[in-house]
Amino acid sequence: MPLSTPNFSFQVEARSATTHARTGVFRTPHGDVPTPAFMPVGTRGSIKGVMPREVREAGATMILANTLHLALRPGPEIVRQLGGLHRVMDWPGPILTDSGGYQVFSMADVSKVREDGVTFRSVVDGSAMHLTPERAMEIQCDLGADVIMAFDQLPADPLNHEQVRIATERTHRWLDRCVTRWQQLGGVDRGQALFGIVQGGCFEDLRRESVAAITRHDLVGYAVGGISVGEGREAIREAFAITTPLLPEGKPRYLMGIGTPVDFFDAVAQGADLFDCVTPTRHGRNHQAYTSRGKVNVRNLAWATEAGPLDPECACPACTRYPAGALRHLCTVGEMLGGTLISIHNLYFFHSLLARIREAVAQDRLAELRAEVLPRVEARYKPEPSAP
Ligand SMILES: [Zn+2]
After folding, report:
1. What 3-state DSSP class applies to 147?
2. Do 30 and 110 share a domain, yes or no?
3. 119-151, pLDDT tens digit by residue?
4. Is 98 an annotated catalytic residue?
5. Can you give the residue range of the structural domain that contains 17?
6. Active site residue 146
7. What is the pTM of this model?
């Protein structure tokens, strides 16, 4: 039975001659995604504090929602009864749901992992819950996202070869079970695509074995997982450098949990097409802004009398309609709108950076853009105090 459908396709449009970077278009039943693309995260069914229209206007084409959170509340059956995730999130474009694996395993102290699946305590009411590869497929079919993810095991200690080997080999067996259950549920006919997740921690031999095992299933796309749990940037870069060139050239490659400007440049050069992270909205709620002049703490007193925009190069509503001093005021007195405006600004910043990255890859000048952008963007910035 086929695992892919003409509803989904991936076309590489431009390739760098000097790196693995490429641009392309990922076509889904709910619209096209120009890649490399950043997916904002709507953990519990909303991109926190931001209306979907603003998310769209910021440049987002595809968004992500977390299966485990939605499985706990309101529950997959209720999401289905309400018309599915596209209705619940008021998002007409493509949506991806994770499998719940990451959330379960990031609560490893309360998890029991067996071959059958994982037992953990609900963060909502403390009751025991059991998640299996089959159940992860059933929940994601009910939620109804365009792209759903296979259920994988993240190793507790990603630097322990034996532990990583056990988790990686189990992930392969779990993918077989995911594929079987998903086919029984009529996943292809539902217009969904299943992505497999490559594991293997930071070990080259296990990464290679994992790519071989996961790509035995001819899926619509593949993700690189299990490398965002505290291994550090160097280890992540190395693990992805090993993994990416081995993944099929003609399929989208999704690097899970990546979300800072330096990470984007690294990952795109390694051949990644899709990313997700909570960074823009989490930082926004904490009044931290990424700007063309550097990282900004909007609450800093230096912004109090700033009549100009937070970021003169930004086209977002926060920068084009408000003096930076007014944003600082909203943030310091705790107005909800403060966090919302900074979140919107960060979304604009991330998506316009990705647009510039796509343009640079098409012209094979990613390294030049990196040298031009990164030193400023990753530094701290605050304005000079204005004269009284
Ligand atoms: Zn802005």
Report:
1. strand
2. yes
3. 988 878 888 889 999 999 999 999 999 999 999
4. yes
5. 9-277
6. no
7. 0.96
